[in-house]
Each structure stands twice: as structure tokens, then as C-alpha cells.
Amino acid sequence: MELGLLYSGGKDSTLAALLLDDFYDVTLVTGHFGVTDDWEHAKAAAESVGFAHERIELDEAAARDAVEKMVADGFPRNGIQAVHEHALERLAAEGFDAIADGTRRDDRVPTVSRAQAQSLEDRHDVDYISPLSGFGRGAVDRLVDSALSVTVGPSEDIPRADYEAELRVLLREEHGEGAVAEVFPAHDQTYVEGPR
Amino acid sequence: MELGLLYSGGKDSTLAALLLDDFYDVTLVTGHFGVTDDWEHAKAAAESVGFAHERIELDEAAARDAVEKMVADGFPRNGIQAVHEHALERLAAEGFDAIADGTRRDDRVPTVSRAQAQSLEDRHDVDYISPLSGFGRGAVDRLVDSALSVTVGPSEDIPRADYEAELRVLLREEHGEGAVAEVFPAHDQTYVEGPR
Questions:
Q1: Do A1 and B142 touch (CB under 8 A)?
Q2: How close B50 gets to chain A, by Cα (Å)?
Q3: What is the share, in percent, of chain B residues with pLDDT greater than 90?
Q4: Residues in A touching B112 (Cβ below 8 Å)
Q5: A97, A1 in Cβ contact below 8 A?
Q6: What pLDDT shows up at residue A161?
Q7: What pLDDT, in 10s, does the model give residues A151-170?
């Protein structure tokens, strides 16, 4: 069975891929708004762990809507959630037997409720799988430590390809550097360099 | 890392074990109230798929409480839930680094909420993992079809070792055969005979 997994190059989506690898033909798929070339970091990370990689085009209007939502809110959560839902809809239309992402049990955002999952499955005739949703933060960290070589650093310095890098650029363009600092408080991200 | 997985011999808990097998030293653990020898079916299923198996003693008083709850309710859900929570508490105290069960995204019972999971983890210093909670019914069925040889049949005819067999015996003892038919409507169960 062919499975497409939304992939950022970070530890969560990489671990999700490893969990599914015995059961599906996994392709790592990175959504791309056409704003930056950050998807190339995800491609490199995918190659470092030996998975096939594809890029899918997302709708730049969805990114611009998300940026306006984040500025209005003063925090990124709802914007990130909207972009993730957009990416899942696009991925679900790609013809895979199953689609997946790296959302964890303890994540605040993005989240995919059981009702959203069933709606995706019914509308697109696809299985939606969130292999980390039964793992807490501690369990994920321990598995990553044992399986992957990872770089950790401040979000703006780590090369990866979640939606954040492209959203930061659009936010800076529309609202200036101060808006970026206001919406995205400093936090650490990870980038997978390969198997341990 | 040593992981103990609550095991009935059915397809869900067997698939959960296979998902975790690359990442943990998995022992399949069957809870046993001392009422019947049905745990032996789970041991045989565990051997057929090549996993270590252990039995843990559960508290017969918990089973008797569950039976009274089911009779009062007229359906088994809350009684089964209470017994599952009791079994997880016992398993969490066994000294494994992580514990797990076969609960699925679409299960109505038993369920383990995020708050219950975090409480188990905090009180027992253990990771609680539900590897199938990110998989819907269709995805589980397709993975089982591809990985396992399974017998399906009416619940009362299938040899397995969830709590149901022992609860049925106690229910019959206390309230008669009619109470069993009333509380447990006819439904099919599965028993794993080995890898496909």
C-alpha cells in the first residue's frame, strides 16, 4: 500500500515515517507555497533516512490567509492549523492509499480530531493515519534519541520545511520584522541529519 | 527499552505489538482474574507471532464490581472500561519502561483519554503508548489482512483472552444465563493464529 506522509525534515515526521516503514511504501511529501526553497531541506533529510520524497504545491492564498489570521490573533496557532488542514486536503487528493502526518498526542497544534480524520477519509477514499498520536512527548523523545541523529536550535536557525519558514517570509513582507517577533516567540526546532 | 503490551490474542493487540517491535523489547502481557484459563489462548497467540508472553494477576473484586456495573447498566461498556483501567494500573506497576495497549481511534471502549494517559505516566514514571490510536478501523483491517492470519467468529466461540470470557463466567454465576445474553449482545471477535 502506498502512503504519503506530510514531511518537514523534523524529528516527529521522520519518526512517524520509521514507524510506518514496515507496513507501507512510504513517500515523504513536503508542502510548498512557492515562497522559499526550504522544501529542499526536507528533501535532504528524507534522503538521509532513505525515503522517497515528493513536493506538492500548496495554494499561496492559503498561506496569506493564515498570516492575516496570525497577525489578528497575535499568536500562530490558528494559522498553522489552517495551513496544515489545507496541506492534508491537497495530500489526500494525490492518489495515495493512505496519508499520514507527524502529529503527536501532546501537540497543541496542529491537531486532527477524530471527526476531521473520518471526514478526510470519507471524502477522499483514503486512510488517514497519525502514527504518533498514541505517543506522548517523553516517549517520542526517547525513540528519537535511540533512532535518529538530530540538530536542535532556535526555530529561525534550523533548516527545515514545516510551514513556518514560508509563513515568516510572508509575514515579514506584509507586516514587517516586528510582526514576526510578535507572532512567533523564540522556540527550538529540530532537523534530522540521518539515522544514528 | 522494555515495553509491556496488554494482550488478548486478538488482531488489534497483535498489530499493536508488530508496530512497536522495531523500537522496543516487547513482552505481551495478559491480565487474568483467576476465573478461567482463557489467558492460555493469548499465550498461544503470542507464541504464534513470536513474542514473549507474561500473565499478570488482576483483582477478582475489580471483575465483580464490573459485572455489577454491567448488570445495572444493561450494557457492558462501563464495566469493560473499568476493568481495562484496572489492568493498565497493574501493568504500569510491573517495572517496564513503557506500557501499551491495542486501543484504536474508532473504539468506543475501552478508551484512554490524554489526561488518563498523562496521569498513568506521571504516577508510575512510565511511558503509556497506544500505537493504534492514530489508525481508523479501515486502516487497521487492511494492515491485519496483509500481516496476520486471523479467525473471525461469534464472540462466545472464539478462544481469546480479553476480559470478556472471565466476566461472562462471573455474570452467569451471579445473575444467570439470561443476564449474559442481555448484557453482551451477539458480536464477532477475532483470534490470531499466526503471521500470514
A1: yes
A2: 17
A3: 80
A4: none
A5: yes
A6: 67
A7: 777 766 666 667 888 999 99
Q: Answer yes or no: is pLDDT of A105 > 80.
A: yes
A193 neighbors A151 (Cβ within 8 angstroms): yes
For residues B186 and B196, what is the distance between their CA atoms, to the nearest angstrom? 28
**Best mutation site among B118, B129, B137, B140 for testing chain A: the one with the most A CBs within 10 Å?**
B129
Beta-carbon-side half-sphere exposure of residue A68 (alpha carbons within 13 Å): 5
B146 contacts A136? CB cut-off 8 A: no
At B139, list the grid cell. 486502516
The C-alpha atoms of residue A66 and residue A110 are separated, in whole angstroms, by: 13
pLDDT digits (tens, 9 = 90+) for A6-39: 999 999 999 999 999 999 999 999 999 999 998 9
Whether A74 contacts A182, CB under 8 Å:
yes
Q: Which of residues 12-31 of B touch A (CB under 8 A)?
A: 18-19, 22-23
pLDDT at A111 > cutoff 90: yes
* CA distance linking residue A140 with residue A46, whole number of Å: 19
Q: Where are the beta strands (DSSP E) in A24-105?
A: 25-32, 52-57, 98-100
Looking at the complex, report in whole angstroms how far the Cα of residue A172 sits from the nearest Cα belonging to chain B. 36
- What does the pLDDT look like over A31-69, one tens digit per residue? 999 999 989 999 999 999 999 999 999 999 999 999 999
From first CA to last CA, the distance across chain B in angstroms is 27
**Residue A146 cell numbers, joined:** 535511540
- Tell whether B45 lies on the interface with A, counting CB pairs under 8 A: no
In this structure, the number of other CB atoms found within 10 A of the CB of residue A125 comes to 9
Give the whole-angstrom CA distance, residue B18 versus residue B195: 10
